[in-house]
Structure formats: C-alpha cells, structure tokens
Amino acid sequence: MDKHILLRHRDIVGIEKLDIYCGVGGFASFEKAIRTMQPQDVTAEVKNSGLRGRGGAGFPTGVKWGFLPNNIWPHYVVANADESEPGTFKDREIMESNPFQFLEGLMLASYAVQAATAYIYLRGEFWELAAFLNQKIKDLEAAKLLGDNILGSKYSLRIFTHLGAGAYICGEETALLESIEGKLGQPRLRPPFPAVEGLYGKPTLINNVETLTNLPPILQNGADWYRTLGTEQSPGVKIFCLSGCVKQPGNYELPLGVTYRELIYTYGGGILENRAIKAVMSAGASSDIVVADDHALDTPLAYETCMERLNSPLGSASVIVLDESVNMAWLVDKTVNFFKHESCGKCTPCREGTFWMNRLTDHIVKGEAKASDIDLLRHEAVQMQGRCLCALGEFSTMAVVSAVDRFRPDFEKHVRS
Amino acid sequence: MAERISLMIDNQTVSVPAGTLVVDAAKLIGIDIPVFCYHPKMEPAGMCRMCLVEIGRPVRDRATGELIKDENGMVKVAFGTKLETACTAPVSEGMVVRTTTPEVSEARKSMLEFLLTSHPLDCPICDKGGECPLQNLTMRYGPGVSQFDYDDKKHLAKHVPLGELIILDRERCIQCGRCVRFQHEIVDDPVLHFHERGRSLEIQTSSKPGFDSIFSGNTTDICPVGALTTIDFRFRARPWELKQVASICTQCPVGCNTTINLRREAKSGGDPVIKRIMPRQNEQVNEIWLCDKGRLGYHFVESKRRITQPLVRKDGELVPASWEEAYQRVEDQLRIESTRLVTLAGGRLANEDLFNISQLTESKQGKPVLYSQMAGGDLTSQIGLSAGSNLGEMGKGDVILVIASDLHQEAPIWWLRVKQAVERGAVLIVAAGRPTRLEKYATHVLRYKYGEEAATLAAFARSTDVNSGNRASVEAFAAAENGVIFYGSDGLGLSGSEHLAKACARLIVDHKFYGRRNNGLIAVWEAANTQGAWDMGFRPDRNLKGTLREADLLLVAAADPAGDDPALAKAVQEADFVVVFELFMTATAQLADVVFPVLAQPEREGSFTSGERRVQRFNRAIWRQDGPRVDFEISGHIARQMGLNLEEKSPVLVMNQIASRVTAYSPVSYTTMSAVKEQWPIIGRADLYYGGTSYDNKDGLGVQLHSAADRGEELSLGALIVTDSPAETSAGIRVVPINALYDRGQMLQDTIQLALRLAPQALLIHPQMAAALGVQDGEIVLVSTAQWELEYAIWVNETVPEDVAVVARSNGLPVQTPLFVQIQRLRKGEGD
C-alpha cells in the first residue's frame, strides 16, 4: 500500500505533534461531526462502513454503539488499550506514533454515544505511554479540542488514562471495568452487558484502540469509501502483527482479505533461514494451531473466510508463524504457562484446568510423562471447553487441542514409552 | 403479584415468578442442581460452574415473533451449544431445562475433579466432614478416582487466622466467594477480599482486628467446605455426633431462633455438653443468620461461677442449705402479717417464671417491679408491631424510624433487617444523639442533644414548613403506607424513656401506623424477654431505690441491682429480708438472706416474647439431675405452699394459665408455638450445599401476639403529651449511658473467645471537653459521684457530642441512667 490509513506516521513525519496532525486533516472529522452531524448520524455512518471490532471478536462496531440505551445516563466510553495478547503489538505503535488519530477516534465514538467522560485503559507496562498520552490530552485541552463546549458546541468531553496492574484478563472488557473501578480484575457475569450496565453500573461503550483509529478516515471519506477496501463482510484495513519465524516481523497495515501466503512471504519476507513453514496462529496465544498447508496459506485473512475455511477465528490478527524447527509440545507448554499465569482464578475450570494442563505439558517437555498423559492433556482441555466463565479459559484450550490433534508426534517424542 | 413464568425442568412443569433463577425453580419442585458459589440469599456469581445444565428456549420467527412449531405441532426448542449455569439464568416462558443428561453429568464430574485436585481430602480431620457440601456432592456426582497425579497436589497453609475468631484453611478453600460476598452484600462489613489470582487466589482480611465483623460466624455456616471454622468449634466435635435442640437466643430482644448442638462427653461424666450454637431458620425473625454474640455467648452455662446449692444466711453468713430449709425460710417471711413484698425481675427470665412470680406477688398485694431503664411496654402491647408483620417484607412505600438506638450494637439482626428494608426501597429516618452504623442507610438523619429526644421527635412531626430541612422526610413519613418505629435506650434513663415512648406513640397514632400489618411500635429492650415481663405485669420503677429500701421481703430474680449501682446496693441492704434467684453469686446475691440457684436457659424449657412480640419456645438442651431448679418451679413451689393454684412442674401448664389470664396470650400454647410452615429458601436438610449448615426449623416459628389495636380494643394510651424530662442541672459532667454489644455483663464473662472484642472501658469525650478538662486521650482519671468513685480511662472521640461524656452500660462504670460526675486527673502535670 502506498499510503497508510492507520499507521500514517510511516508516511508523515511528526504526525504525533498536534499542529502537524491538524495540518494533514486532523480533527476535521471530529469538527465535522460535532458541527454538522447528529450523534445518530455518526453511528449510522460507522454502521454503514461495516467496520468490525479489531480487538478480536470482530463484532460490527456501529451495531455495538446502538446497544447503549438512551434512557440511562451518563454514558461512558472506554478505549481498550490493554493490548496483552502475546504476539500483538499494533495498538502500541498507533498510540506511540499516531496518537491524535486514535484520540480523535475516541472523541468521535464519545460524541456518537454522547459520553462526557472517556477512559483509556492501558496495560500496566504502558506507563510511559500513559504519560505520553496525558501530554497529548493536555495539548488537546489547550487547543480547546477537549473540555467544555468543544469548539463552541454544546458537546463537552474529558479523557482520562488509567493504568492496569499487569493482568492479561483486564483486556476482557468486564474485568477491565472492574479494574477501572478499583476492584480486583475479574470478569463479570454477562448479561448485563457493558452497553447497558458497564462502568459504575452505567451504559458503557468499549472499543479497541485500532477500531477507534479507523473512525476519523471513515467519517472523513465516508462509509462507501471504506467499503472499497477489504472484503464484503470484512471491509477496511487491518494491522497484522506478524511475528515468529519470519524474516521481517512487524506491523503490516493491509486490506482485510490478504492471504497468509502474501502476508508471510510477500510482506514478511518468508521464513527464517528459508526453513519450511509448519503452522500459523492467527490470534496470538488464543488461537488454534493451524497446519500451514496450501489450503491454509491461500486463505484470505478476513473474519468470515478464516472461520469458513479453517474453522478458526481471525481474532486480533496477531499472526505467529511457526516453522519446522518448532516443537509443538514446547509451544503448547509456553502458551499454557501463559494462561495459567494469567488466569484470574474466578471460575473453577480455568483456575484448576490451566494449572493442571501446565503441569502436564511441563512433565511432557521435561520427558517425565507417560504416553497416556498426552490423552489426559487433551481430555483436560476438552473438560474445560464450553464451561468457563469468560473466554480466557476457552482460549487456553485451543492451542492444546489443535496441537495434540494435528502434531501428536511432537508430543510423543518426549514421552516415555 | 409478579408475573408468573412456566417452564419445564426434567419433564416437570413448574410455574414461578418472573426473575426466578433456574436453580431456584428446580429446587422448588425438588430437583437438586448442585451449587457451591450460589447461595439463595445472595446475588449469583457463576464462578464455580457446578450448576451447568442444558437450557433450551422456544424458537420464534424473527419477523413475526410467533413461536415456531415442528411437524408434530410442538413448539420448537433450541438448545445452546454450551451448557449454561443454572444459578445465573433467569427463567423464561417455555424454557426447557435438562439436568440429568450425560453432558450435564460429565460437566459436574469434571468440575468436582477440578475442585478436588486442589483440595486436601483431609475429611477425616475436617470439622465440616459430615455436613460438607463438597463431600456430599462428590459422593453423589463426583468421579471415583482422579486422573491427576496426587503428588502434584499443591499444599497451602492450614491455620491462617483471619482474626482471633475465624480460622482459614487455605488449601480447603475452593474460592467460591460466599464469605466475601456475604461480608460485602449482606452485612456491609467488607473486610474480606480475594487476593492474588489464578490458583494463588486466596481470602484475606483487610481489617484490624482481623475479620472485624459481628456477623463473622455466619461465613462458617455458608462456607461449602471446611475452609472457615470458628475458634469455638474448631476440632471440638464431629457433626454426626451432635444432637440438636431448638432454642432461642438469650442475648437481645430480636429472639433469633437457634439450634443448640450437644455432645455427650467424658469430661462431663457422660452428660451432654454444648458444642456450638447454630442459627435455625425463621425468615420472619433472623432468616438464617446469627450474630457472633448469639453464636459464642453461651459459655456462661458451663461457668465455674454457677451456684448449685441453695444458700441461707445463718449468723450473718450465707451457708449451703437444703431446698426444704430455703423454701421454709421464705414461706416464714411470706406468712408474716401485712408484709410488704417487692419482687424485682429482669428480662432474662422466661414468661413462665415471670407469670408465677407476678402471681405470687399479686397474692400478697406486693409490687412486681421490672428491672429496666426502659418504659413503654404498655404502649407496645397496644400499638406495637401488628400480628402478621414481617420486617423482611418492608420496602418501597414503607417508612422506618429508629430513635435512640444503636441497632448494630443492641440488636444486630434488626440492624440487618432494617438495612435490607432500605435496600428494598423503604425510607429510613434515624434520630440519635451521636452517629451510629445505621445512619449510612438513612434517608434522613436527625441529630439531637441528649435529653431532647421527645422534643426532637415532636418538632420533626411539625416541621412541615417549606424552609425546614426535615420537610422531605416528614412528607415521606406522612405519605408512607406502613410505618414502624424502633426506640431504644441510647443515652436515656427511665424517665427519659417514658417521654420518648410517649412521643413515639404520638407519632404512631397521628399517622395511624398501628393495627395493620407491618405497622407499629418496637422497643429495643435491654433483654431478651423484657416485653414478656411487661405482659406478665412487671413495671419499671422511677423510685427504685425507695421501693427496694422499704421492702419487708425483697425477691430479686435475674437482676443485680447491687452490682450495677452502689446506691441500689445500699437500698438492698436496707430491705428487711432478701431472696435472690440467680445463676451466679452476684453482689445482690451476696446481700441476700436466701439464694436459690437457678437453671440457665439451655438447661430448661420456657418461652420468650421478642421485641416484635413473637412468643417463641425454647427447649431443654441439658438435663441437670440435681442442683439448680427453674425459676417458675421455685416460685410456683413457694406459691403452692402459700395455697395458690400455680403450676411448678411444667412450663406447658404455666403457659396454659398465662393464656387464660393474659388476653394477648390467649392464642399461645406450646402447641401453637411449635407450628411450622414451609419457608424459602429451603435450607439445612440433606441438601446442605444449597443454603449452608443453618438448621431447618422443625420446632416452631412462634406465635405473633396481636396488639390491642389488632384486636380492635379501645386503646388506653394515657396522655400522650410530648415533653422531655426537665433538664437536670448539677455541677460536673453529664455522662450518658449507651449500649455496647460486647460488654462486661455477667452473661459474656465466660466467653473468653470474645475477650479482644469487648467494648473499651472508657469514657468517650469530645476533643473540646478534653481540652477543657486538660485530659489526654487514653488517660486514666478518677470519676466520681456522691455514691462512688472509680478510676476509668478517657478516650477522646470526635463523634461524640461536645456537652456530654458517653459510656457503655455494664462495662465497669455504674452508669445506667444519665448522671453527673466529677472527673479528676490522677497525675497532675503529666502530659501538660
């Protein structure tokens, strides 16, 4: 792509400064919205654009906005900047290098649902980024783009950053809300959904950083323009976080629908040392391990095609490439260890299941396991599936089951016969 | 009436109110869906995942909203791809629930296997073993063997004191969060929290002292494993060895229903010993809860200080005597012509005792005096809480006014029930001379100067003008459909209490808050059966000193005037002949001519009338073959010697006499008090997992008395002229008495478990007064009146009024009623 839509800093030097951002059309969308559009018009435009949530679930953004009831006030908007999924590093680049486009998106979303307060929930490790964003928020306040009666309109908005304390689970939106409220980061029961009963019990819109960053160009150029990019059911561009055994790992902003093959070989430069590709994971650690055969490599990376062709969701498009040198038992030990460490402990299957899966993978990779332990590992993952309180527990099983099913010899080579 | 929803659970149709959860709907028709984290008294959490079931919902056409039918004309039902938690799913019309399918069984087995991998399996030494939900559900639904390596089990600390009362066994904890949620949601003492995450998740206390809550014992009942145990019962007995006897708590006027657990022990010569006191369900009284005072305050029964033999005074000394001799001495005195008999009785006695003593007194034209600082029992019997009332039903449209009572300290379960009524929408007005815990939930707070209680209430009722800050609550009060007033004795003596009771009655009458369900006046009495004493004819005496002094024969039962007040001690000494019925060798007993040892409440049968005027029976838990006897038996025996037709053998027969002579008690008998009916939630049966180990009520819910207004009788309330007592003036500092839950009264002295929680022995004064007196926080001073002087501590506290010093009753300083004292520094110059 010649010009970036989201990673505009790659094209425009200094866009992290407010005057430069404004000089390249920054805040034109927001100004247009608050001066000429009703909140519901903004929502309608986003709905028409077909933009889907970039945090992983792929839920239509405009539809989500429509869930906030207009008879309960105040409304809150929260930007989910907890970016904690292993292999995911897109939101960080946006916020570090193109912060105002993200903030403008957050302001557009806030205007659309008429929230007067918005929070940016950042993972605890992003403390420097939080200070950076605080400065950017101050710049906006100084420029009267944030605060009371913005640009002379009736609309007022404040934005606050909030740092987490280092828990992966706080990327789950209800645990995130608990964390902002100062409570232990554990997911809430749903329903009620945050759109109805969210932060401090009030209707709350939670969108991912990348999702929000898409809003200024959509409002600027229109829904029809946005739909010219990507596929019919997955319009627009996506930042693919490419990592693992590739020559050129990094963030790639590409239209949805690009294939694995293009991403890995055209953009990522192919596999390290030109080894053979073995498998891919599309959503960081929360993925199935997909055998990288031609069918998989030719699959377009879009929400619908990944499900249809691979029965595996696109998720956050954090593509981890695994080559022939990677032992899948070792890999699963790593992912399961991660989930064990991050399980909040609220529900039984996740709290206990991740622990025991990790004990088994640990035994397996250390060569201390029996052959039957491989079946036990898989059985245990299945024992958890469909029974956890939130998605974390479910996600922890995906790599396990797919790896055991698809790469059993990798496990067998470790166990005692 | 809430909308009703019909659904099908395991092929049984059930109809329940909208909003009911699937787990409760199933329970109602006898289908057990196992749970750990869910508790019917709390909001669902959906954490343990034990209650997973298959739930199907009827399919509707998206366009028309019509139900879609299959080829047989049956409504099509779609089941989700995942199992759902029955504890978080509300019922919906046409829902189909399956709880016995292989998928559900497999899920239960899986959850139990997961839980047990972290659980120590030390059932043989666990206090919960035998009444343990985890144990029971494992036997019923669990896998026989674990797939996991036992050596991989993680071991955690087994003796973690959350405070000195409750011990946590970390490896037994299954992280269900019931205790945390109970402390946050139900009793609003948010002192327990989850700490850490994942498998390191643990319960911690954040308070000092640890687990600082007067309701802490309840968490051990609802804990579905043996993770939480009380220091009192820990390692003391196995549940299956315990015998259950239904009883009523003796500690306050709420009348919580309890079950006494007993075990025969070698140390008692094979006799039953009380091992623990447990709550017994009565949804109209204490639900399934009990405060820690009620749970732990039974140790006086086994006290070494108990007297076991009658004593008579010979040559100036009290010496052991036979019952016959003791009886004869009293009879001789009673037979003296025109002897002036005064009986002084405390509210610790049962109705049957009070009736017999009152009848005996009446036969000699004597004076039955109630040992109490509170008035108004005649008013509560006429316009008190109406029969059929239930604080648990009060909510939107209702008003509750609490005046001169720190309910949290005086009647904890009422505090809880009032708080819950507010949560259901009731308007709460709290009037007090100082801040109390209840004010947090109040719609409106009235702060008065001690001594101006009645005037404050009267002014409140009149303050309808636009500028009054009280206007909104006055209007809420006037607009309420139902109204209940609680009045207590915070800062009041008897004369102040008389004025306050009248002011409350005035308000009740003016607003017609009487004679109807969920309306009326409630006195927060100092003792469990003070209302019963009023009903049996006892009245407090404003000139108690004079009355005692002038008695030829003074009979004191369950009261220790000499111990409470040096002035009264002098009066008792001046009485000609003193007979005392007592558990302990109190100061009054030491002055007696005859002392009769009496049985403690768990050692006998009887009935109490609660502050809500519910008459409830308690049973004999411990049988003592010799030694002490029951108060009604002793008084009945004396009366029979005097030729009266009173019962001495059985409280059942005494109650029959009461029923025939006291109008309000005509429906009361040991049969009617024993009636039970189905209560919700269902608890305490074989399905312990559901509500915890509180006991199912099989022994009686008691009889609610009708007030005179309920019976449609003409009221005789007297002149309800509202004034306060004339302000006394005297040199010195006015001290007002308040009530502390954990005081140093006779009944708590043997409960060493609560020793660290006792109210501080200190006069609380405002910083301004401290400055004026030149005393420091924590300083020991000499406190004196004309009658006594004592060394006592001063605590400086900003929340107490500037013009008075505040001190807890029965806590070392003889202040039962407001009085003036001198305060002198002991160490002049120090700290200046």
Shape of chain A: globular
Overall average pLDDT of chain B? 94
Oligomer: heterodimer
What's the arrangement of strands in the largest beta sheet of chain B? 16-15-26-25-24-17-18
**Strand-residue proportion of chain A:** 5-15%
What is the N-to-C succession of helices and strands of chain A?
HHHHEHHEHEHEHHHEEHEEHHEHHHHH
Helix content of chain B: 10-25%
Q: What does the main sheet of chain B amount to?
A: 7 strands, mixed
How would you sum up the global shape of chain B?
A: globular
Rounded radius of gyration of chain B (Å): 29 Å
C-alpha termini separation of chain A: 53 Å
Give the spatial strand order of the biggest sheet of chain A: 6-5-9-7-8
Percent helix of chain A, as a range, is: 40-55%
Q: Averaging pLDDT over every residue of chain A, what do you get?
A: 96
Could you name the ranges of chain A where pLDDT drops below 50 across 5 or more consecutive residues? none
Separation, N- and C-terminal Cα atoms of chain B: 68 Å
SS content category of chain A? alpha/beta
Largest sheet of chain A: 5 strands, mixed
What structural class do the secondary elements of chain B suggest? alpha/beta
Provide a count of the helices of chain A: 19
Question: How would you describe this structure to a colleague?
Answer:
The complex is a heterodimer of chains A (about 425) and B (about 850). With about 425 residues, chain A is an alpha/beta fold. Chain A has 19 helices and nine strands. Chain A has helices at about 20-25, 30-35, 40-50, 60-65, 90-95, 100-110, 125-140, 175-180, 210-215, 215-220, 225, 260-265, 295, 305-310, 330-340, 350-365, 370-385, 390-405, 410, and strands at about 75-80, 115-120, 160-165, 205-210, 235-245, 250-255, 275-280, 290, 320-325. A five-stranded mixed sheet of chain A has the order 6-5-9-7-8, sandwiched between helices. A four-stranded parallel sheet of chain A has the order 3-2-1-4, sandwiched between helices. In chain A, strand 5 (about 235-245) and strand 6 form a beta hairpin. The longest helix of chain A has 18 residues, at about 350-365. Chain A is globular, with a radius of gyration of 22 Å. In chain B, strand 32 (about 780-785) and strand 33 (about 790-795) form a beta hairpin. Chain B contains 23 helices and 35 strands. Chain B is α/β, with parallel strands linked by helices and about 850 residues long.
